[in-house]
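Quick one, probably user error.
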């Protein structure tokens, strides 16, 4: 979405993909009222204007700076072998207000290539569906060793299944404005990685007595954080 200011009201320029969605899927007509967001906390209301095959919006009202969720959750998660499962996580976590997602490359990560642009588009679609005014940031694939170089260990936690290491429950985590969670791949983090994270000062958490799949663990943490915002 791009704003261009005319003589009276600004005009919103809609990209080709969104134009197709408006005309072919939503079957909207010229003059109909529509709401659009830039994904940065701003909302514009206006009416559709058709210029040949182009669709623009004549803006009648702009509401700026909608408040974001008070807890800015960042989940760093290893991609699943079946790409549908990580896409499911991105969609559901977005609906529950996640702020940032990093795709982790770990020792046991089987999937080496991932189309992060597609994940970004899915996050935007889920944001629109759930009426979010902030789109989550989707980072490219990052090695675990590189990721932990720039994190705050006091607000970072790792969910793993190795009971030989001390783990706390989610209920023991203090109230934090910007928590970060690490979720491992199928087969979990390696023992070497778990020790590396512990040496970094990152606390391990347990997500319950049952073993959760990677994407389920991610959705579980997103739901836990969403509940904490109320």
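Nope, works fine. Designed sequence:
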């Amino acid at each position: 979405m791009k704003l261009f200011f005319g003589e009276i009201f600004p005009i919103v320029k809609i990209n080709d993909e969104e134009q197709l969605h408006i005309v072919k899927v939503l079957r909207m007509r010229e003059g109909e009222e529509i709401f659009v967001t830039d994904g940065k906390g701003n909302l514009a209301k206006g009416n559709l204007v058709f210029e040949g095959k182009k669709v623009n919006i004549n803006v009648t009202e702009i509401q700026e700076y909608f408040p974001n969720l008070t807890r800015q959750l960042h989940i760093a998660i290893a991609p699943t072998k079946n790409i549908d499962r990580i896409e499911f996580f991105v969609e559901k976590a977005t609906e529950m207000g996640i702020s940032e997602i990093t795709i982790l490359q770990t020792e046991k990560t089987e999937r080496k290539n991932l189309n992060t642009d597609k994940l970004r588009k899915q996050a935007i679609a889920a944001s629109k569906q759930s009426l979010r005014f902030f789109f989550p940031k989707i980072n490219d694939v990052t090695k675990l060793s590189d990721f932990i170089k720039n994190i705050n260990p006091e607000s970072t936690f790792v969910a793993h299944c190795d009971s030989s290491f001390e783990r706390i429950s989610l209920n023991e985590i203090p109230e934090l404005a910007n928590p970060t969670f690490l979720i491992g791949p199928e087969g979990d983090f390696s023992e070497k990685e778990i020790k590396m994270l512990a040496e970094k000062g990152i606390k391990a958490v347990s997500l319950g007595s049952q073993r959760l799949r990677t994407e389920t663990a991610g959705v579980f943490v997103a739901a836990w954080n969403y509940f904490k915002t109320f």
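The first strand starts at residue 2 and ends at 5.
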